[in-house]
Amino acid sequence: MTREICGDVFLVGSSELTDSGDCMVYLVKLGEQAVLIDAGTGRATDPLLANVKRSGVEPQAISAIVLTHCHVDHIGGANEIRKRTGARVYAHEKDARAIEEALPDYTVERYYGMKLDPIPVDVQLAGEQGEFDFAPGLRWIHTPGHTPGSIAVVYKSPGGETVLFGQDIHGPFEPEFESNIDDWRISMKKLLAIEPDILCEGHFGIFKPAAAARRFIEQYLEHYA
Ligand SMILES: [Zn+2]
Ligand SMILES: [Zn+2]
């Protein structure tokens, strides 16, 4: 099972599609190559890659795995997918150590009853925002709050839609993995300013049109006001 979100964006993993612990894993086709946004827990990598194929993408065409932050439900499958496909792993430098050293308080592996091995991060993203080297035009934005190195990804579809991969917009916020609610509020304002037509969230689904995407973010800003 997969779900087409717009022309070249697919949902290939989620708690319903792959493993009960998995975040929502998205695939973006970029011509001959493709990028995976997050990687799930790793407990269902075979079904996840089968969904990639069903979306019309050979797993070997995945050139990058973008990890939006250091939690196990987003990163657990990254190393296996990296080995099988040759894709490079991208993460923000502020979460990179937690991922590369599999620091348990930061990966929250115990919430999932898992024991993570270290995951190599091939490319550390530094600063406030940028474009990915493999796909100019695909942007990342540093959105600290849930974790210090959380990022969002912004994709402009050929149809002209702005697709925002916001992932764990909803939190939660815990001192053990250095959440910061003040940083998070600023980050959410950055996401609102993008005015996405489609919001792909980390667990709660896909929100469109633009008013629904905006409402989802605003409702959490009100909740944590
Ligand atoms: Zn999550
Ligand atoms: Zn998370």
Care to give the gist of this entry?
The chain is an alpha/beta fold. It has helices at 45-54, 72-75, 78-85, 93-100, 104-107, 181-194, 210-223, and strands at 3-6, 9-13, 25-30, 33-37, 62-66, 88-92, 123-125, 129-132, 135-142, 151-156, 162-167, 198-201, 206-207. The N and C termini lie far apart (38 Å).
Written overview of the protein:
By secondary structure, the protein is α/β, with parallel strands linked by helices. It has a single domain, classed as 4-Layer Sandwich (Metallo-beta-lactamase, Chain A). Helix content is 28%, strand content 28%. The strands form two sheets. A seven-stranded mixed beta sheet has the order 1-2-3-4-5-6-7. The longest helix has 14 residues.
Distance between the amino and carboxyl termini: 38 Å
Number of helices: 7
Mean residue pLDDT: 97
Structural class: alpha/beta
Which kinds of small molecule does this entry bind, naming each only once? zinc ion
Percent range for β-strand residues: 25-35%
Number of strands: 13
* CATH level-4 homologous superfamily: Ribonuclease Z/Hydroxyacylglutathione hydrolase-like
Q: What is the number of domains?
A: 1
CATH topology term:
Metallo-beta-lactamase, Chain A
What is the H-and-E element order?
Answer: EEEEHEHHEHHEEEEEHEEH
What is the level-2 CATH architecture name?
4-Layer Sandwich
Classified by CATH, the class is: Alpha Beta
Which helices and strands occur, and which strands form pairs?
Blueprint: E1 3-6, E2 9-13, E3 25-30, E4 33-37, H1 45-54, E5 62-66, H2 72-75, H3 78-85, E6 88-92, H4 93-100, H5 104-107, E7 123-125, E8 129-132, E9 135-142, E10 151-156, E11 162-167, H6 181-194, E12 198-201, E13 206-207, H7 210-223
Parallel strand pairs: 4-5, 5-6, 6-7, 11-12
Antiparallel strand pairs: 1-2, 2-3, 3-4, 8-9, 9-10, 10-11, 12-13
The site of one zinc ion has 4 residues, from loops.
